[in-house]
Design a protein that fits this description.
Blueprint (H helix, E strand, L loop, with lengths): L15 E8 L2 E8 L2 H10 L2 H8 L7 E6 L4 E6 L20 H6 L14
Antiparallel strand pairs: 1-2, 2-4, 3-4
Pfam family, one: AtuA_ferredoxin
Protein name: AtuA-like ferredoxin-fold domain-containing protein
């Protein structure tokens, strides 16, 4: 069953939902498309480069994407994404719990400068 979504999508949240967490100074964000069509759009345009470009103001490191096609989703691992992690950061979100919400605000489609084919 597909969930209704705005046409055309204006933000990533119109195509998917997400959840995030941490392990030390490394964060991960799981992004799951609402349907197969959304998954194909995300697969083509939600690249590690696009996500890194969007999160650049947070001072993140390398971003890696792991595809989960049977779930219509992806797991993104973000190095140095938490300014030291829970024990060493002065950020409000030291455990990366709000990162998913931030990622869902990614404008859709991503800006041309952030679009890369994987």
């Amino acid at each position: 069953m597909s969930l209704p979504r705005p046409t055309p999508p204006r933000a990533l949240r119109d195509l998917a939902h997400a959840r995030s967490g941490d392990k030390g100074n490394r964060a991960n964000v799981g992004v799951l498309a609402f349907d197969a069509e959304g998954y194909e759009l995300l697969r083509a345009h939600l690249t590690p480069e696009a996500l890194a470009s969007f999160l650049k103001p947070l001072g993140i490191g390398e971003v890696r994407r792991y595809d989960l096609p049977h779930l219509h989703g992806f797991n993104f691992v973000i190095e140095s994404g938490l300014s030291g992690g829970a024990g060493g950061s002065l950020r409000l979100d030291t455990q990366g719990k709000a990162l998913a919400e931030t990622v869902l605000n990614l404008p859709w489609p991503p800006p041309e400068s952030a679009r890369f084919k994987s």
